[in-house]
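Ticket reopened. Same input as before:
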Amino acid sequence: MGFGRYLVIRILNALVVLAIVTLVMSALFVKVAEKDLENTIVQQVNAEFQSLQQRGRIPDDPDAWRAERIAHYRSQYHLDKPYWWRVQYYFKNTITLNFGKTKNPVFGSEKDVMAILKVAIPRTIQLFTTAQIIIITLGILLGVKAAQMVGSFFDRALSVLALIMSSIPMWWFGMIMLLIFSFKLGWFPSRAIPDPNLTGWAHIVDLLKRMTLPVATIVIVSFGAWAWVIRNIMIGTMQEDFIMAARAKGVPERKVIYGHALRAAAPPVVTMIIFSLLGSLGGAIITESVFTWPGMGRVYWIAIETNETNLIMGLTFVNVLLYLSGVILADLTYGFLDPRVKVGASQNV
Amino acid sequence: MRWVDVKESLSEFWYDFRRQKSGLLGIVLLFLFVFTAAAAPILTSPDIPEKWQGFWLDNPKNVPPTWINALSSQKMATHLAITGDELQNLITKTDSEYLIKVSYNNEYDIPPQDIVIKDLAGDASGGKLSISVMVERPDGRKITLLENYKFSGSLVLQLGSHPQVRDNLIKWIKSEGIYVDPIQEFQYKTLMDATKVIFGELNENILEAPTPLTGTYTFTILVNVPEGSSVSFENAKIIFTGRTYGKLGTDFKGRDLLAGIIWGSRVSLVIGISVAVFSVIVGIFYGVTSAYLGGWSDELMMRFQEFMASIPSLPILILMGAYFGGHIKLWQIVVLLVLFGWVGIARVARSMALQIKEQTYVEAAKALGAGTGRIIFKHMVPQLLPYAFAQMALSVPSAVLSEASLSYLGLGDPTAVTWGQILHDAQVAGAAVNGYWWWVIPPGLAIALVGLTFVLIGTALDRVLNPRLKRL
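Engineering reply: fixed in the latest deploy. New output:
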């Protein structure tokens, strides 16, 4: 099977998954939105009634007027249509990234869900990629080091660290970091929202200062487990015959490890990178809310606290979309690095 | 399997497991957690879950634990509540008066926040009752804090912020010959920290910067009951509201955090273990069935598994939270976590079952006419049990973490006491930014410890039951 065909199959696969998940989400969402819309309608009708009252034009039969207005709004919000019609309506809207508006403004005065997401997603990606680059570098360096000296104190320490860190909630660790470095020592600001009055160099310094704690939190909690995975893959590779052959040939040890072993271990390592990326996305998003970093995590927090259903729906869809793109990326790199595979890396999860 | 076989294999297992030091540590920790969870009503009190959502009015708000005094140079007053029999013993009754004598040993650099006399039930059918409060200080001076304060019905008296107490204190300071700036007098009357003055050394700075006077203070509370009226001390309390409280301090509602941590262990353990057990069972049966059936059913089942694996669980769980009206009940959390938890296990179980399927004894069973159910339940699944047990233990931490994350986001069950919810409240109240470490550290540590417990047990089980992994 050629790489092109493989690519097409993987993408089609992901699209099917996306469609089904969106359909399920829409089906759930219609139920949630119904309650929400009914409340909105009652509020709107009450407001209309009051404004009529103020102008002294109270309708002759208030109850009939009320029922008529409610019916009007119900048809405007499509509440009079059958359930499955609404599900497919929301499904179409969601797939075309038309999420509607929030009840209250988020991030200043923005009410359009798509516009809010457009502001929030780059901020999340900025924070998250910075952290991941550091984690990957640290993970590879430490993991290879540990694989070189299996059973040593360093190796054991790394394993224990990975063990402990894997059971710590990342967002809690963020709170601890705030407690120590922001409250106790006062080195970093407690709120991560950048100062809008600064420009140029001062803005960058400000931004870096505000990013330090969230990035440090993500790195400290994740790098241990990461290094441990690299270590396990490398131990397996280092026992292969071609490594022995390279050593026997007199290739310098550095080159054996980074040139031969690491290259052979590349397919699983790269897919592990992408999957751990995807896995830590959720935790990192929650961590954002601890530092009030104005990314997706913050928006999630606001959406849940203020019960913004449209916003929750939009966030969920974007998250699924990001996740599926990650899965495709993992599959493609795996197929690219290891031409033997016929199925994607995601099949081994 | 006969009972003797079970016993033998168990003792054999225990022989191996005993040598796994980390596993033994995990077992000890697990035992501790189970004990805490089971004994929660005895360790604290059985009504904590009902009380949890409300304010705990008698307790100080946002105060650190008492043992902080051992670490800092400034001793802060601990919480003291005199209730029940202890209070009844202090009451003496004369003709028309009740006399309560309370001695309080102030050994602190920072005195209590407040002195509260509450829940005296007065029946004023024969005229209003009146209460007077006097204090005798260690330096021999006597102050009348409150004189003939009239009340009827239930009485709550906060001496620390009572205007009459402030007035009387200023009067007393003047009578002791200390100059009080008339310009500032009004400010003192509205803002004075009365307890700091009551427990302060008498000098020129007693209003500006009081220094503590240690020793035994005797408070005399006099309740005058006119003829025909009566007073009940049944529910009465005298509270010296502390600046420290209990073993783990309090939060913004005055709740005892130690009680919260102890009760939270129940939710964590129950959710963690049930999610792990159910998702492993579902995963194993799904994988084994898929492998045994083979062909089209296998293909279909694995497609579905792949579909489930490519859904990110957290965003969907959050959406589900919104679907259930913003709060997911505990059993719903279990169901949802199982829904996403079985996926990885099913694939491993399938690949293991594919090997078992080729064994001759399965073929023999088939030849003897055993049905699909019998072969799966009796011959294939038991082979996977070692893997299943290790996976059960290893699945607990992520279940505990997921539940805590959902509760932290405010989607948890509002009627349950959980660690995630304590941290949610802490985040809303800005506990980390305000330095309320006693509120932030213990719940997270507890979550991490439960996770660690099961990781330790799981890896030890894995090493004993799947010897291939021993070298790692």
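Chain A touches chain B through 56 residues (CB under 8 Å). The longest strand of chain A covers residues 101-106. Please confirm and we'll close it.
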